[in-house]
Design brief:
five-stranded mixed beta sheet, four-stranded antiparallel beta sheet, 9 strands, 26% helix, 28% strand
Amino acid sequence: MRVLIPEFETKSALVSYLKENKSKIIEQKKAMPIFSEASNFNVSAVKNKTAIKSNEPINEDVDVIRVKVVANTANWLDSHMDVLLPDCWTKSINERKNIIPHLHDHIHKIDAKIGEVVDIYSSQLSYSEIGIDGNGSTQALVFITDVMKSYNEKVFNQYKSGKVNQHSIGLQYIKIDLAINDEDSEKELEFWNKHINQIINPEAAIERGYFWVVQEIKLLENSAVLFGSNEMTPTLENNVKNIEPLQDTQQTEPLKDTQFSVLSAIKEVQPQLKS
């Protein structure tokens, strides 16, 4: 669920509304869990920078495959006008890593799990790795998951055939602020000037005159989805499960126990869903 911003005929009317209602909107955004589903505002139509990514299908008859997926990417203006800053998820990963599940379609039920999460970490990836035309790189939120056929055969087969190319995180805002391209808004203009040139796809921000600067989140889950608000979230690898422990964990240590408590995860998320 998202806090919806009304449509206005002019940019100045939109900016005025945001300035007058900033505190209320931020309070509302922080008060509820957020699912990064796509909205009606199409950022892709503005940026025109993406390339479709896919993986080779796995032809072996297996019951478990290990996938490496991008759950979100920093400095990308998503379809809800959010820009998640690098390391905004670091504190949450360090504190909650062993209870963050990999689901499908943001369904918060035990039978929505698609496998067991092996690791979660940040990694600097090139634009080409995540499907963006051009040179450069950005920080990505990466999940390593052992996808189980016994958990959900349909989703398993989608990963196995290399067809899952978008993911989406469930989150709760912890630190968020507003950036506005308006000379009469000193603090908001400061955020604008600081971050606008860091955004990979700034066209929609420039067109609308604002964006949300997300400095810290509480990461609740990662989901395989058909469409996400940040489409730069592909499956990087889909392989037959390798029983050797992973070595590349970047900013965080690999999990010593890859089996997290499903009941703990559900209990933590459900009270927030009622708010």
